[in-house]
Amino acid sequence: MPRVPSLLAWLIISACAVMHGAWAADRLFVVITAADAVERHLSRETVSQIFSRKQNHWENGMRIQPVNLPAMHPLRRTFSQAVLGHLPEEMEDYWREMYFHGVLPPHVLASEEAVILFVASTPGAIGYISTCSLDRRITVVLAFGDAPHCPK
Asked: In the chain, where do the E strands start and end?
């Protein structure tokens, strides 16, 4: 019988490792701008300032146009926690206060493809997508996580 606890412990550790791997894979995302954007690298702090609407212009003076995914989208939730330090619903009071100062939250688009299209075609736009959604229309300015194995 001494093998049963060892087997059980091994199964629990294996299950945790698999769950951690799935959790980590879901957390891989990149912040993107148009392929011809001037900015090529941004810090997490700068992206936080942009999506909090505390930084509204790029260094060249162009207005920044940040876009979000819907509040319940898993990638939006991951982005919000990683970059802003809060879930979307935890930001509601902040946005109510900002509204009274004439500041609106970033636009919300329905899908990652919509974000890519908007960012690629809108001067000054910035957004985020999963790492596996990258293509030539956009430039990565900040990455979260390692390069994943993306299904074809």
From this structure: 29-34, 65-68, 107-108, 125-130, 138-144
Which among 107, 109, 126 has a CA at the least distance from the CA of 32? 126
Could you give the CA distance from residue 50 to residue 64 in angstroms, rounded to a whole number?
A: 8
Q: What is the DSSP letter of 1?
A: -
Q: What CATH number belongs to 28-144?
A: 3.40.190.10
In angstroms, what CA-CA distances link 96 with 73, 82, 106, 116, 117? 21, 22, 13, 28, 29
pTM, whole model, 2 decimals? 0.79
pLDDT-derived band at 152, boundaries 50, 70, 90: low
Q: Could you tell me the pLDDT band of residue 1, with boundaries at 50, 70 and 90?
A: very low
Nearest to 84 by CA among 41, 127, 49, 130: 49
Quick one: which H or E segment has residue 44? Answer: helix 44-51
Q: How far is Cα 65 from Cα 77, in angstroms, rounded to an integer?
A: 20
Q: Domain extents for the chain? A: 28-144
